[in-house]
Design a protein that fits this description.
Two copies of one chain form a homodimer.
Chain A (H helix, E strand, L loop, with lengths): L2 E2 L12 E4 L12 E5 L10 H10 L3 E6 L10 E8 L3 E2 L2 E2 L6 E2 L6 E7 L2 E7 L4 E6 L3 E5 L3 E7 L6 E8 L4 E2 L1 H6 L3 E6 L2 E6 L5
Antiparallel strand pairs in A: 3-4, 4-5, 5-14, 6-7, 8-15, 9-12, 9-14, 10-11, 10-13, 16-17
């Protein structure tokens, strides 16, 4: 916090506030993260046998992210950090579930603070691309594109600072039902984009 | 850039793109900055004699910022870095002009990458506050608030990464005519917030 004539509340989205996000880890002393464990990702990775084998070893944390209680108003902006852990399910790298915005034609900005990976994009017409993320790169997720962060680093977390319209909403269902058309997998020790055999 | 099936354009806000912003300096190899020199800030600092004396020594750079050619659509987001140079006009620290958004009820997020200072906020009812910026602090500029970045550091630039709705627009006129109700000035070697004697 700190400042002059501030409300003193740690979260004040009506008069203004500051929130700390560590420039390397993305973690905050003010705001808690929501957590996604492997068990919550069932069906999202292509190799189901590898998924079951990994889950049998323990329900590991795949990613976490801040979900601040912003007013869901078209003039407000939701923000925070996304932290994707390193790991693989078979050849497929750890990733977020990925989602469209419920208000489809709303964009999002991600600014990479540490780690390395890709932002996998796909729109409803089937246009797919993957944009490389390294520290200091901002990726623009255009209106109408589902987006998924993929951590291709061997050991480091992929940390991004994100901002999107607070009323945009999350549509996870489309991806959960259909999957992504493309995967980011390791081949010969390097990340490549391949077709998803399970896409329907 | 880098990635799979990207358009290869350095700026592609329809299919997605990455843009580099150095995590310390805020500067980009892809995107140029707009620049505000001291001569363009006439009338914005309280001490006009100090302003004239400083300008007589040379037309120094006060701040720069990215203005990317985003579609001005309510679903798009403008983003980039703001870089405020260290310096003072009399006792008043170097700062940005400050502005309301033309679509008044739209927020903005600033994430501080380096340097130190304050985000000075003021709404049309006269509610004023200043929020401290240090590396890793994000400040939420709520709907309806004019916002100005003030660099209170002795030698370092104040660098922030910002995001706002791309159709929000800039209303500089209100501040240019009326000024801010409050100033951030140095007193006994420290920043303080004081009343602006020129506010009208």
């Amino acid at each position: 916090m700190g400042g002059f004539n501030t409300s003193g509340k740690s979260l004040d989205f009506l008069r203004g506030c500051t929130i700390d996000f560590d420039l390397k880890s993305g973690m905050s002393e003010t705001a808690e993260t929501g957590k996604r464990y492997l068990s919550e990702m069932k069906g999202m990775f292509a190799d189901e046998a590898a998924f079951d084998a990994l889950l049998a070893k323990g329900d590991t944390l795949v990613y976490e992210f801040h979900g601040l209680p912003l007013p869901e108003h078209e003039g407000d902006l939701a923000f925070g950090c996304s932290i994707v852990y390193p790991g693989k399910v078979g050849d497929e790298y750890f990733m977020t579930k990925g989602h469209f915005h419920t208000i489809l034609d709303t964009a999002e900005v991600y600014y990479c603070l540490s780690g390395s990976g890709y932002m996998l994009l796909e729109n409803k017409d089937g246009d797919c691309s993957a944009h490389e993320l390294t520290p200091g790169k901002a990726v623009y997720v255009p209106k109408g594109y589902a987006h998924r962060s993929v951590n291709t680093g061997a050991a480091e977390k992929l940390v991004t600072f994100f901002v999107f319209r607070a009323d945009a909403g999350h549509d996870y269902g489309t991806i959960e039902q259909k999957g992504y058309r493309k995967l980011i997998v390791e081949a010969d020790g390097k990340p490549v984009m391949t077709d998803n055999p399970k896409w329907r």
